Amino acid sequence: MSATDTGGRVSRFGSAVAEGWTRERFGLLGAVALVLIALAPPFQVYLFTDFLVVALFALGFNLLYGYTGLLSFGHGLFYAGGAYGIAIVLRDLGPVIADVVGAGISPLVTFVLGGVVGLVLVVLVAVPVGWLSVRLEEIYFALITLAFGMLGYSLIIQDPAGLTNGTDGVIVLLGTVDLGGFSLRIGGRRIYYAISAVTVVAATYGVWRVVNSPFGTVCKAIRESPDRAAALGIDVGHHRWMTFIVSAAVVGIAGVLRAGLASVASPGLTHWSTSAIAVIATVIGGATYFYGPIVGAFIFLYIRWAISRFPALEAYWELFFGALLIAVVLFFKQGAVGGLLLLRDRLFGDGDGGGGGGALNGGQATAATDDGAESGDDNARADRGDNS
Amino acid sequence: MTTVLKTEDLRKQFGQLTAVDDVSIEIDDDKITSIIGPNGAGKTTFYNLLTGVLEPTSGSIWLRSGDGDDLADVTDAEPHEVAQAGLSRSYQITNIFEGLTVRENVRVARISHDGSRLDFRSRATGDESVEADVEELLELTGLTDIADTPCDTLSHGEKRTVEIALALAIEPNVFLMDEPTAGMNPTEVTEIVSLIRELDEDLDATFVVTEHNMDVVTDISDRIVVLAEGSILADGAPEDVLTDERVTEAYLGSDSV
């Protein structure tokens, strides 16, 4: 057996491990982790659910920011839209639904229906708001979305239609499903975590599909150069509008989950300071990466929690985030994910340059020459999925 | 010979300044036409009018769209509508999707041409006919070897070539090139000139070029149109135009009255 044969085998083995670990096994590992978290103490389960919801909020926001190049400062409007949609259905339609489907199953039916109503409401709001907003770019877009968010805030507080209960907000009571002996409290920490985890994972997969579709590819082109995209026959205004609606819908799903988690839909959800959470989480995590907003949301919530453990510091937690944000913007323009990829490339230096491949890419790169262009091409595609 | 692009008394005023002054021109499909003129002659404004970026003050623009010989009025069309109608452009200052790879750049253009822009269900890489077209175009423009390179790491000359590949990807009837050799070194200029000649022979598109490099202009043009102060100063075969006294005067900037 010659040295080249051995080399070939080792690299094929390396490639197999790499392939396995980058896809199915990481997915499986993630799923196992999600299940294990359900067994944690109730507060930790709550905190992780909180993280999942904020992550979806930021992920939806980033469809418009990182992928299409429009910085919205008013996505709290859609967060609140989802929350109020389900809250009002639960409050006003709960008894009616119980009459129709029976008291036992009605909390679940009401919850699902409320979620759908929240989502539809958000889309109905996003259609005109988006249509008006995408006429503007850059700071003007940020300002008009900020204005729409605050318009929603004052409408909810003034409550002209008598639906939103002013500054107190609408209490969310999820109720208990009772089917002869089998009972399930939807608002229970672990049950609600399970519902949130499934929803967030499914929605994240949906967003991932969108950014890797022809639609998402065009979004990225618009981010890079809107006038070039137009010169290729792309209706930039229309495409931004459609992206705005999809982005709002994703945020609306997060809003629905938020209402159940907080047990209340409150006006603060559409305040600019809530919209800013999506911006901060995305910038900290890295707007140019698909997983950036998720990592950013994780950092945001767990650092905030860690600070809250020290009562002396707690009053200053916003100050801490201010400092963190300045550090990220000045020194880690690509956010935490960009920083981690850079660190990994330094440590395992594979000369990949693009920073997409990974620590295991050394094996892949060798295998590519061995197995021909096909696998090389696959690597490149996976890289872009990580990167874009 | 067919007319593919026509303007009638096209005019653009910015306040008191007339940047394009009643220009009427017909572009034929059997020639490479160069539009030249000193700085400030109105070339870029003229291009921006043709591509719908600027709205003309008066006059009209007609473009051969689709496969027929009929000209369609595109005077009031938006940039993306002009592009869909069959007019493509490359920019003087490189304007490509810097953050994407070369292949992704071309793919965006093919998605646009294919009309699958709003498809968010399938994979961008999943449409085999689109991918085959992308590969073909990369090969045609000699970009296959750097197809997976992010564009922000390319050399200036390579970026100019991507610029051309993008414009061609939407299969235009007319291709407006705004200073294709701007900022290039002599080797790159030679390469791009031979690429333009090759493409002109291989493709149905009609090439219209603005250019400052006179060697390039004489090399590739069948017809030269000279713009000065917004209007057509001379129009004809290279040997006639370039020996025209008024043209040399305009270029030397002799405003001694």
UniProtKB/TrEMBL annotation, chain B:
GO terms for cellular component: plasma membrane. One of its GO terms (molecular function) is ATP hydrolysis activity. The keyword Nucleotide-binding applies. Residues 5-254 form the ABC transporter domain. CDD domains: ABC_Mj1267_LivG_branched (cd03219). Probable component of a branched-chain amino-acid transport system. Belongs to the ABC transporter superfamily. This is Probable branched-chain amino acid transport ATP-binding protein LivG.
